[in-house]
């Protein structure tokens, strides 16, 4: 099992250089603006902004495509179902198959917003190391306990993945899950499930015991007994970081104002 | 705290886990400042439990522990004692080596400048400065061990407890650890099954069996005593076998 959360966090691009707290605020503002779009005429500008941000991040296209794999199932269902089922104005009909205008519009809006927001999320996660991201959220007010939990989860996820891989390997080496079994060994789903449950249970117990040891080690190094103020979490941005937020704010406001104007004209 | 005659004093210490026979029975031990005490004994004889009691993680059923002249109160953070765990993965909790070494110092309330200086010192001392930006899960076993030690010594404890420090190390990493410990000025208590390691690093050895202290002597004297070692399921280390044989002959 390979965990590659920070695979592209080491690239060099304006988005990579943008300090994480400012990036969260900037991209967050854009996401909020995207979520508020109701007018189809703003779809293209919205998708263009998301596309430009993605291009500026220099992330490979396959990253976005990979991240789209599972949400894509939801998108396909929206693309197929909404135009056929939602609305009253018929655009085209063939037998019982009816394409409706309201459904097509709703589909366009949902898919457009979804793709734009997902693209920005991929940029945020892909251009910032996970640890930096959690620290940035902490500096923006995320409770310390939640930040610690996220960081520890990140740290021990790799250990857990290694342990699982080793245990699976050990099981395979003792014949578990073989495709070619001797004739006298009959496949039993119940037995297989039993073994897998035991594997999961062992992993759970090991993780629990390790978490106890980790907590003891942390206590011994003063966790929970903070004796001073320590390192400040307050973000200290450069002019570049602030300009990033300003550009994002202007783009977000432009979309929101355009949306309001188009609504008002109707 | 250099005024204290004793770095660590354990008096009549008894401890048992719920629904189990006592793990430690009337343990008495005194460790002087600068001592390098090795604790040997079979698996389950109570070494790790003793360490958890010494560092205030567990609460004794009976008895008293003093660290640098002050009683150890269970649950109370005592930066004078540091513990290096048997499995470094239990201890390396941060996302990078540098951050991990800084963890304890941040909890102690040092300024960022002090933290940076002390982390750099600890990494240099343990020879791990090149690993500073690496995530702990990418390190080898030996590297993890040295980083775990750096995380503890960065806090400058007066007593450092090592639980099986040479376990799972290859020969080169083990030798590096031995050299490091031989030069370290701290008071240390080391539990190990690696008797050659104890012989090289410690200047005093205690033999534990079934939760009691059986013998307390200089390493060469204790480890070469064939009768004592065999009576408690241990073997005389290879390097002492000729000494042991000639002693028996005498």
List keywords for this structure.
A: 266 residues; mainly alpha; 2 strands; 69% helix; flat; B: alpha/beta; six-stranded mixed β-sheet; four-stranded antiparallel β-sheet; globular
Walkthrough of the structure:
The complex is a heterodimer of chains A (266) and B (250). With 266 residues, chain A is mainly α. Chain A folds into two domains: 154 residues, no CATH class; 79 residues, no CATH class. Chain A has ten helices and two strands, in the order αααααββααααα. Chain A has a two-stranded antiparallel ribbon with strand order 1-2. In chain A, a hairpin with a 2-residue loop joins β1 and β2. The radius of gyration of chain A is 25 Å and the shape is flat. In chain A, 22% of the residues are buried. The model of chain A has no long low-confidence stretch (mean pLDDT 84). With 250 residues, chain B is an alpha/beta fold. Chain B has a domain of 76 residues. Chain B is 35% helix and 22% strand. Chain B has nine helices and ten strands. In chain B, the strands form two sheets. Chain B has a six-stranded mixed beta sheet, sandwiched between helices. In chain B, strands 2-1-4-5 form a four-stranded antiparallel beta sheet, covered by helices on one side. In chain B, a hairpin with a 2-residue loop joins β4 and β5. In chain B, α3 crosses α4. Chains A and B meet through α8 and α9 of A and β6 and α2 of B.
């Amino acid at each position: 099992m390979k965990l590659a959360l920070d695979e592209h966090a080491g690239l060099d691009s304006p988005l990579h250089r943008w300090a994480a707290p400012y990036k969260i605020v900037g991209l967050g503002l854009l996401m909020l603006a995207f979520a508020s779009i109701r007018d189809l005429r703003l779809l293209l500008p919205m998708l263009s902004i998301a596309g430009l941000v993605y291009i500026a991040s220099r992330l490979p296209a396959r990253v976005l495509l990979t991240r789209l794999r599972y949400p894509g199932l939801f998108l396909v269902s929206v693309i197929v179902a909404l135009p056929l089922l939602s609305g009253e104005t018929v655009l085209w009909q063939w037998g019982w198959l009816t394409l409706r205008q309201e459904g097509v519009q709703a589909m366009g809006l949902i898919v457009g917003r979804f793709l734009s927001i997902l693209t920005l999320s991929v940029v945020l996660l892909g251009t910032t190391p996970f640890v930096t991201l959690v620290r940035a959220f902490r500096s923006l007010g995320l409770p310390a306990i939640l930040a610690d939990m996220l960081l520890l989860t990140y740290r021990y996820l790799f250990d857990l993945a290694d342990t699982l891989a080793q245990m699976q390997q050990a099981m395979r080496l003792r014949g578990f899950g073989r495709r070619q079994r001797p004739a006298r060994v009959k496949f039993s789903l119940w037995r297989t499930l039993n073994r897998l449950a035991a594997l999961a249970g062992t992993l759970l117990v090991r993780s629990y015991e390790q978490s106890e040891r980790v907590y003891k080690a942390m206590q011994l190094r003063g966790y929970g007994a903070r004796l001073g103020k320590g390192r400040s979490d307050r973000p200290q941005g450069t002019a570049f970081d602030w300009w990033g937020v300003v550009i994002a704010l202007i783009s977000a406001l432009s979309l929101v104002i355009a949306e309001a104007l188009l609504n008002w004209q109707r | 705290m250099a005024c204290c005659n004793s770095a660590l004093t354990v008096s009549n210490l008894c401890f048992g886990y719920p629904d189990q026979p006592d793990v430690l029975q009337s343990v008495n031990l005194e460790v002087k400042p600068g001592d390098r005490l090795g604790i040997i004994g079979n698996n389950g004889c109570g070494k790790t439990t003793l360490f958890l009691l010494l560092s205030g993680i567990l609460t004794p059923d009976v008895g008293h522990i003093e660290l640098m002249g002050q009683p150890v109160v269970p649950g109370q953070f005592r930066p004078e004692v540091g513990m290096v765990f048997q499995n470094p993965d239990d201890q390396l909790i941060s996302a990078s080596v540098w951050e991990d070494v800084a963890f304890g110092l941040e909890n102690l309330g040092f300024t960022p400048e002090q933290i940076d200086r002390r982390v750099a010192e600890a990494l240099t001392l343990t020879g791990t400065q090149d690993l500073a930006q690496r995530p702990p899960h990418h390190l080898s076993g030996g590297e993890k061990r040295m980083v775990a030690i750096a995380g503890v010594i960065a806090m400058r404890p007066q007593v450092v407890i090592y639980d099986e420090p040479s376990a799972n190390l290859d020969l080169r990493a083990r030798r590096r650890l031995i050299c490091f410990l031989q030069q370290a000025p701290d008071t240390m208590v080391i539990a190990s099954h690696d008797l050659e390691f104890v012989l090289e690093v410690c200047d005093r050895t205690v033999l534990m069996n079934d939760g009691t202290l059986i013998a307390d002597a200089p390493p060469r004297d204790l480890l070469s005593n064939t009768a004592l070692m065999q009576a408690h399921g241990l073997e005389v280390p290879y390097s002492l076998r000729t000494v042991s044989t000639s002693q028996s002959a005498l």
